User: What shape does this take?
Amino acid sequence: MDRFGAFRMALLSGGALALSFLLLGLVTGGLVSFLLLTFVLAVLGSATTPVSYGRMIVGNFPRRLGLVYGIVYCGPGLAALTFPSLVGRLLDAYGWRGAYIGLAILTFGMIPIIALLLKSQAGHERSKPGAARQNWGLYADRRFLLLAIIFLLASTGIFGTIVHFVPMLTDRGTPTCLRPRFFCCLPAVCSCWRRATRS
Assistant: This one.
């Protein structure tokens, strides 16, 4: 991120994310290949997270930063509200492979739009050589380790629940058309509310 700039990394990672979706739809041949491709997706798509876009927000909005963050990060909440229904329809119409291909097409289509909207914004700059130095002593700091453990446990609980939520609805006999709605509504509303109140 520091070496190449947030804008470049966000676009490259977006392309890699779309390619990973495509490979999941075309190449997956079993559990091992699925897990490997999912790992590749998580690694290559990591710069599409708030880490890169947060850099651009800070560079463009030095004032009212909290309000801007609140508005921008309502996006993930709205995506959580709409995408499960979209994926559910793709699954019903084209199967799971077709759903991954559909997500790849959608992601590829968003890249030129993002590039056009952000091409004149801050975030293109690269850090000067030697500006970012590795502070290895940080990893031995007790406060850092405690925070890392807290975030690990929180992530395990949150994402463990998310992964198993739809299977739990399936076991309870919830109709297929209703599962995405149950899955997306509460996290989406909570995310939007949290971002809006923080601003």
Remarks:
- The mean pLDDT is 75.
